[in-house]
Design a protein that fits this description.
The complex is a heterodimer. Chain A has a single domain, classed as Orthogonal Bundle (MetI-like fold), CATH 1.10.3720. Chain A contains 10 helices and no strands. The N terminus of chain A is likely disordered. Chain B contains 10 helices and 10 strands. In chain B, the strands form 2 sheets. In chain B, strands 6-7-8-3-9-10 form a 6-stranded mixed sheet, with helices on both faces. Chain B has a 4-stranded antiparallel sheet with strand order 2-1-4-5, with helices on one face. Chain B is globular, with a radius of gyration of 18 Å. The chains are: A mainly alpha, B alpha/beta. The structure holds adenosine-5'-diphosphate and magnesium ion (MG). The site of magnesium ion has 2 residues of chain A, from loops.
Amino acid sequence: MTILLADPAPTRAESAEPPADPPQAPAPPQAPEHPDHPDHAPAGRSLLAGTASWDRVADKAAKATSTAAGAIILVALAAVGVFLLAQGWPALRAGPDELPAKAESFWTLAGPLAFGSLWAATLALLIATPIAVGAALFITLYAPRKIRGLLAAAIDLLAAIPSVVYGLWGLMVFAPLVAKFYKPLSEHLGWIPLFAGKPSATGRTILTAALVLAVMILPIIASVSREVFRQTPPLEIEASLALGATRWEMIRMAVFPHARSGIVSGAMLGLGRALGETMAIAMVLSPTPFLMTFRLLESQNPNTVAAFVAQNFPEAHGTGVNALIGLGLILFVITFAVNWAARRVVAPKPT
Amino acid sequence: MTATALKTHSLSAYYGDFLAVADVSMTIDQRSITALIGPSGCGKSTFLRTLNRMHEVIPHARVTGEITLAGENLYDPGVDPVLVRQRIGMVFQRPNPFPTMSIRDNVLAGVKLQRSRLPRSEADDVVEQSLRSANLWIEVRDRLGKPGAGLSGGQQQRLCIARAIAVQPDILLMDEPCSALDPISTLAIEELMLELKSTYTVVIVTHNMQQAARVSDKTGFFNLAAVREPGRLVEYADTTTMFSKPKKKETADYIAGRFG
Ligand SMILES: Nc1ncnc2c1ncn2[C@@H]1O[C@H](COP(=O)(O)OP(=O)(O)O)[C@@H](O)[C@H]1O
Ligand SMILES: [Mg+2]
């Protein structure tokens, strides 16, 4: 009840009056100028003339290094793009004999897979975001101080689990478990199109895959949200409480307005991870070729791009390989577009 | 004989184990301005924040003793601190309007907490009334939809005052409301305080003794014996008495500017 923020950031640090005994370290002894170059600025020279050429060098080096780093990233990105384009191109004109799964054309293959990727990732995001934001809120603003660190570490640990392990767990433990719930779910909520159809007995459905994905992307969304909640200006927290806001009202007045863009970026990072996730989906999901459906519980499910590529790569040859690379290009473009859209959403509005 | 707005009985405030303010008993008159002065770190802000239970939002901070408002102890276990803060408003040292809200929404922020359904015309009245009371109406009436963060420091502080009085509290606490402002804005706020005291009970912390002398009816002088010692209320009297013939030498020394 009396706890405001997770960290010892004093809520009144902005007091202009210094505390009676400021816990300030004694100022370090003035270091001589440019210790590396004792002969750099001989006594008697004008201060202006002595401006550090050493600093200039360091400045230039920093600029060069960061430019190079930026350039390397762009070059790598371009190289991957060129590779995907060049290698994927031949698949566009390929026929059923050459394409994986005997697809009519590249697009009949790519369309449903792109749909599957987006659908699974969107579901995962819809499931994970509220939970992650709620968990972050609880950790930052409600949980007793003693268990905050523990909870945060536990959530972060979810991110450290390899996706193969998620796949195994999803396949062997989670799918059979949720399958039990799918039957009553389809009986009672079958009138909702999402839950229509005959429920899968194995539980290896797109919903199960999305749930596993949700667990996987939860930590990233939670940790970004936690960070933005923690940075709420204490002045605004106090302003709302002093107006007679309850804690939840304080969260709505002071915490959320600052956190919105942070939560969106966290969610987009999560979405990126969900779109690219391969192993867990390949193991959990039981896909049907070329299927596009929004239904969640049936044993026939759309596949995702990443899982399809991984599953078909070992047997692919010739133009088939080009097709898989072309699919990689599709995923690349989708992820790029999503990130770009997210940036547009998050970008601060000019005021 | 003036009525009593608020009364503290041997009030002490702690931060964890550290006793910051010890044993304050004082009576705050209704519809008057009470100034709290004293050197930095003597616990003025801490004491002020115990008056509307804002002290306890700081982790490990706690209070002992009693504060009575109309005969009711604010620290009774059954009392909801949220309701206390609705009746005892607060203005902070640094202006803190909500940056994402418009001027209008800032004024209504507290009102909307208490009344979920507020007809537009009534809301308009509250906004105009509060901004007029805060002497800000004329300056902002053409841009009520603009963000409050676009105002000058002094205007922002008056916006915060408008926000605080929009909920019609009984008491208004101000913690050095002018210390971040220029002299002209300071003057505007001081004039405003003098107008507000016809309706509200005002308690103001100030490090500026001229300000205390200019605006307040009563003055309380806080001091502490040494660093890490608790702050105490040394002397409390009519402002004219305090500044002309204080009883304690400590007070006289402080007022004369010999320390602090
Ligand atoms: N959030 C806090 N946590 C711990 N100690 C605090 C906190 N705020 C103030 N103090 C201490 O309490 C004492 C009184 O502080 P304060 O009430 O701010 O004094 P004043 O407003 O008179 O300058 C000081 O010793 C200060 O260091
Ligand atoms: Mg203070």
